[in-house]
Design brief:
By secondary structure, this protein is mostly helical. It is built from 31 helices and 7 strands. β6 and β7 form a beta hairpin.
């Protein structure tokens, strides 16, 4: 019956092209080559796909506003497939039709845009296929009524066409542009009306022959079977969920020991000022790299090089939070390298983080194949071998990112120069080898954005050596005049905003405001970090600072970030702090630098008290300062050099460590 229906459709050239596209999508979702047609193995393969896909519809909380339609449709198809498979000679084309419905249901869950007409059809078609499975099994061979057989094959033809159109539309297959007339609203409505009319003719014939009672009996028998099947599937789903959760936890614990997280690492970075970063997001190289609509316009790898304090990490955070997440079918993964703690300068930690982020995203969209594949490799290799290998983690991450269910994946690795050298060399080698293949170089599925200082052992020795003149690099160091001019304009915007804030705080006159803009605005070598140090330091130290002091400061601003750090530390002397306070400043900075992980405010409070007490330290608890108290002490001693993120202590910037050590 279904084979006759498909043959009828293929008599028309457009319908034939549509069915070919639909079959290609179905084959890609099976994730393996189809066994030969007409064999029991092909039947088992299709049935296994239907059962596997049905699992994603158990948790209706992840299915959106059409959850009831999707869940009901999946259940009906499971019942229909059970009827088909139970036959002495199962009808493979009928099973393929069931697989097609399950495919469209799955694509609806993943789609970023959906048509109500699709759900109107999916509300009815699974029930119709279920009935057709019963009619074919019970009456197709026996009946000689050609009108009835014609009605059934017409109904099958309309259903196949609906499924083919729906799959191509949801998958955004190129055929939707070639045969665009088929996909307008009017054609959808016409097709759905044809399905309903053919269904009515079949139901009328079945009523005349008293076949409806057979359906009632069959449904009662299968109700218990379906409940049992659902119970088994629920148990399997729960077991899988437990294993995946444990796997994701191992990835996270390896990358972030001691309770830290990649969210904290991003939170350390300042937000971009409003109106900035446009020099980069408007850059032709970034537009070509980021565009999802024109995959051949640029390289999937983009490298940003800049000197310290120029805003690389701020830009990365801005891209992650504001610019890149806009397309819904896009996963954004990131890692901020920092060489102040072991786990933040590890390549394996970075890759565990990227894999964790990607799998969390895919699981939230019911795309279970990515995590299942990664878990299989983890179990095969063992925990130590898997988590300790850059090459294994990179291979696992890239295979997941290139999976047909992954969608577009964008990966940001910030401050690559702060990665441990041996790890960094191995990671860059893996990146170069991955993008060296023409297929991956032309692919838009996995895009990589890297930032680094322009060190020769990274750029010339590794990237330029592998890429030559094709290295897609944007330099933020003034070498490109158009970029330098754009950045200078953005820095002027930030400087003017900070000066206005200073003037409002100290109630300075227009004349003094102009004086500040003239002196600070013209300072050479300004970077975003320099601006932060100069202006935030002034704003934080409002107590005891006169207008005369501000005027003196403005006339002699710090020459660079190191000069700014020197002035911040020297201020403790000018404000009359004694030797004990200078010693406390030194102790705070030394402990933050030496710590293997970020210290909490409570830990710092205890650490500062230890030199004053002898074991067993019973009195320490009474002397400990509150969180706010110890934070006030740290700010008084260290100024802007130390920042607080979720009650953990960090140096403001990598250049602080370089200045102090």
């Amino acid at each position: 019956m279904w084979k006759i229906a498909e043959d009828q459709l293929r008599l028309d050239k457009k319908q034939r092209e549509l069915l070919d596209a639909y079959n290609d999508i179905l084959k890609s979702k099976l994730k393996k080559d189809l066994n030969p047609a007409g064999t029991p193995e092909r039947q088992k393969q299709i049935s296994a796909f239907i059962v596997s896909e049905s699992k994603r519809f158990h948790d209706t909380s992840k299915l959106g506003k059409f959850a009831s339609v999707l869940k009901k449709g999946a259940d009906c198809i499971l019942k229909a497939e059970a009827v088909i498979s139970a036959a002495s000679q199962p009808c493979l084309p009928a099973s393929v039709a069931c697989a097609g419905v399950m495919l469209v249901l799955s694509l609806c869950v993943q789609a970023d845009s959906q048509r109500d007409v699709l759900f109107k059809g999916l509300h009815e078609i699974p029930d119709v296929i279920y009935d057709l499975a019963g009619y074919e099994k019970l009456h197709w061979t026996d009946t000689q009524d050609l009108v009835f057989k014609t009605s059934m094959t017409d109904l099958c033809s309309h259903i196949l066409e609906f499924l083919a159109r729906a799959a191509c539309h949801l998958q955004k297959h190129p055929i939707t542009r070639t045969l665009k007339d088929m996909f307008n609203q009017g054609e959808w409505d016409t097709l759905l009306s044809a399905v309903e009319a053919a269904e009515a003719r079949v139901r009328k014939h079945s009523a005349v022959n008293g076949w409806n009672s057979i359906r009632t009996i069959r449904e009662a028998q299968e109700k218990g079977q379906l409940a049992q099947q659902n119970a088994i599937l629920s148990k399997e789903t729960a077991a899988r969920s437990e294993k995946i959760t444990a796997f994701l936890q191992k990835l996270n614990e390896h990358a972030w020991p001691g309770g830290a997280s990649y969210e904290y690492s991003k939170a350390r970075v300042q937000r971009a000022e409003e109106g900035t970063c446009k020099w980069f997001t408007n850059h032709d190289k970034f537009k070509a790299w980021e565009s999802p609509d024109n995959p051949n316009s640029g390289s999937p790898l983009l490298l940003l090089t800049a000197y310290p304090g120029c805003g690389k990490s701020v830009l990365s955070k801005h891209l992650i939070d504001t610019v890149l997440p806009k397309p819904e079918d896009r996963a954004v993964c990131y890692f901020f390298f920092k060489d102040d703690f072991e786990h933040q300068k590890s390549a394996t930690g970075a890759l565990c983080t990227l894999l964790h982020q990607l799998l969390i995203t895919s699981e939230s969209k019911c795309r279970t194949s990515l995590a299942d594949s990664a878990l299989r490799r983890f179990e095969a290799m063992g925990k130590e071998s898997f988590l300790g290998s850059v090459s294994s983690l990179w291979k696992t991450f890239t295979e997941a990112a290139l999976h047909t269910d992954a969608g577009e994946v964008i990966c940001i690795l910030d401050a690559l120069d702060e990665c441990e050298p041996n790890d960094r060399n191995e990671l860059i080698k893996a990146i170069n080898e991955f993008y060296r293949t023409p297929q991956n170089q032309a692919s838009c599925l996995l895009k990589l954005f890297l930032t680094t200082r322009p060190y020769g052992d990274i750029i010339q020795s590794q990237f330029s050596y592998a890429w030559g003149h094709k290295l897609p690099e944007i330099r933020l160091a003034g070498e490109e005049d158009d970029v330098a001019n754009d950045i200078a304009e953005e820095i002027k915007i930030v400087v003017d905003k900070r000066i206005d804030r200073i003037c409002d705080t100290f109630h300075l006159t227009k004349q003094k405001s102009n004086l500040m803009k003239t002196n600070l605005g013209a300072a050479p070598g300004r970077t975003y970090l320099w601006i932060t140090l100069v202006f935030d330091d002034l704003l934080k130290k409002t107590s005891g600072i006169s207008k005369e002091y501000i005027e003196s400061f403005v006339k002699n601003p710090p020459k660079d970030v190191n000069d700014a750090y020197e002035k911040i530390l020297n201020r403790s002397k000018t404000q009359g702090l004694g030797n004990q306070d200078l010693k406390k400043t030194r102790n705070i900075l030394q402990m933050i630098i030496a710590a293997r992980r970020p210290l909490t405010l409570g830990e710092m409070s205890i650490a500062l008290l230890l030199p004053e007490y002898q074991p067993p330290y019973q009195d320490l608890a009474d002397e400990m300062e509150s969180k706010e108290g110890i934070w006030d002490t740290i700010r008084d001693c260290c100024g802007l050099l130390v920042i607080r993120v979720d009650d953990r202590l960090y140096l403001l910037h990598q250049t602080v460590r370089e200045f102090l050590v």
